[in-house]
Design brief:
By secondary structure, this protein is an alpha/beta fold. The chain is about 25% helix and about 25% strand. The protein is built from nine helices and 22 strands. The strands form six sheets. It has a six-stranded mixed β-sheet with strand order 11-12-16-13-14-15. The chain binds flavin-adenine dinucleotide.
Length: about 375
């Protein structure tokens, strides 16, 4: 190659970080990583940040990878050979986009809304990223009596076990502080993670109930009512509670909006070929991609590696594939600092042909049960 090829990587989640690290192994490629604030977030930090047990900075760090140039701004538009940032298009040779799923910022209408026209007059907060958790934390700390509603807005959301962990964390906290609180989890799903099978549904249901959590299955909230700060089911059932924590609808990221397949992933996910390439020639990785694996870190890393290898091949650089089948670890918060690890592997190949093998661990402290190790691996991925 006559001159160094230019690669742009969009995002700083596990998929983008893995892709950038894979690309930079090749001297022939210059890598620019573009992400808001130039920082990486570990989303599993949402729960301890929400309960004010840990600061945001424990789960957010600047991206610093030797040889990778970081642009601390959002990408505004992308094409196969270019990226627009702050109104300026820059030409590159390949683009890998891993911006994750977009949270619906209109549900509720603002970070904190006192319900208008609701008899309950509750405060309602949107969660599922670190900033949302940080904004809701003072209300959680101040709420000492009544019902906390945790509401899953729609069936597509990242880390399906995590709302159950959130409910257990809040219920266990209330018990240990002697608070007169009831935690109620509502979901449009008939059962949690029914697709994975192997007892995960039963485990989440029984662990949450034995922590004192009330669960309402097939309880779909009226999204338009939530936009106005009211909690009502699509069937018209109004909920009386003091504090509502909403896992908002997850949508395709605006950068990828033209690429979704309306028939998969509730019309919010992007199909890619075996090299991670979407229909417009952009390589796409991570939660944004239509894939048979759960929306979790290990599948995101795997698809980031796969997209990077696809991009290197397009640049004419021969590489041996490193990507293999992912082994996701989902850490289910059990409260009081304990986590149960749900480990998923695919000994018989990728789904749907190969069934997942699932091992559900006992509740174990973060330091010994794998949660702290996962945080350490994330920190090492983000920074040298
Ligand atoms: C509460 C919670 C708990 C979780 N627990 C676990 C767990 O225990 N185990 C597990 O494996 N997974 C867990 N997950 C899921 C896991 O975090 C995601 O599957 C994973 O982060 C997806 O990686 P990603 O790289 O695709 O996207 P993301 O991690 O979502 O990263 C997207 C990146 O793109 C950036 N971005 C967004 N817009 C732009 C733009 N316009 N331009 C440039 N960059 C942009 C963002 O700032 C971010 O850096 C959890 C998620 C949540 C919410």
């Amino acid at each position: 190659m006559a001159s160094r090829a230019k690669a742009a990587v969009i995002g700083a989640g596990p998929a983008a970080l893995a892709a950038a690290r894979r690309l930079i192994q090749h001297d022939d490629v210059g890598v620019t990583l573009i992400a808001p604030g130039g920082s990486a977030d570990l989303l599993a930090g949402v729960l301890p940040v929400l309960t004010s047990d840990r600061p945001v900075d424990d789960f957010r760090r600047p991206v610093s990878i030797d040889g990778v140039q970081v642009v601390a701004a959002p990408a505004e538009s992308i094409r196969a050979n270019g990226v627009q940032v702050e109104g300026q298009w820059t030409d590159v040779d390949v683009v890998i986009a891993a911006p994750g799923l977009a949270l619906d910022r209109q549900v509720p209408a603002s970070a904190s809304t006192t319900a208008a026209g609701s008899s309950s007059g509750h405060a309602m907060f949107s969660l599922w990223d670190l900033d949302g958790a940080h904004a809701a934390a003072p209300a959680v700390a101040a709420f000492e009596r009544g019902v906390i509603d945790i509401v899953i807005s729609s069936p597509l959301y990242r880390c399906p076990p995590a709302p159950y962990g959130l409910a257990m964390r809040l219920a266990t906290r209330a018990t240990s502080l002697g608070l007169d609180l009831q935690v109620r989890l509502s979901t449009p799903e008939p059962r949690p993670l029914a697709a994975i099978g192997s007892g995960v549904s039963e485990f989440l249901d029984s662990a949450a109930r034995s922590s004192g959590v009330e669960i309402r299955y097939e309880w779909a909230p009226d999204i338009e009512a939530m936009r106005q700060g009211r909690l009502v089911s699509v069937g018209g059932e109004e909920s009386e509670s003091g504090l509502v924590l909403v896992i908002p609808p997850h949508h395709v990221h605006p950068l990828l909006a033209d690429l979704v397949d309306p028939t998969v992933g509730f019309g919010q996910l992007v199909p890619v070929d075996a090299n991670g390439c979407a229909a417009n020639g952009v390589f796409v990785a991570g939660d944004a991609v239509a894939s048979p694996f759960p929306r979790a870190s290990a599948p995101a890393v795997m698809s980031g590696l796969n997209a990077a290898e696809g991009a290197l091949a397009r640049l004419g650089i021969d590489v041996l594939p490193t990507a293999s089948l992912p082994e996701p670890d989902c850490f289910v918060d059990r409260g009081s600092g304990d986590y149960s690890r749900i480990h998923i592997s695919y000994p018989d190949g990728a789904p749907p042909a190969g069934a997942p093998h699932v091992v559900i661990g006992e509740a174990t402290p973060a330091a010994t049960g794998g949660f702290d190790d996962a945080r350490q691996r994330w920190a090492e991925l983000a920074g040298d």
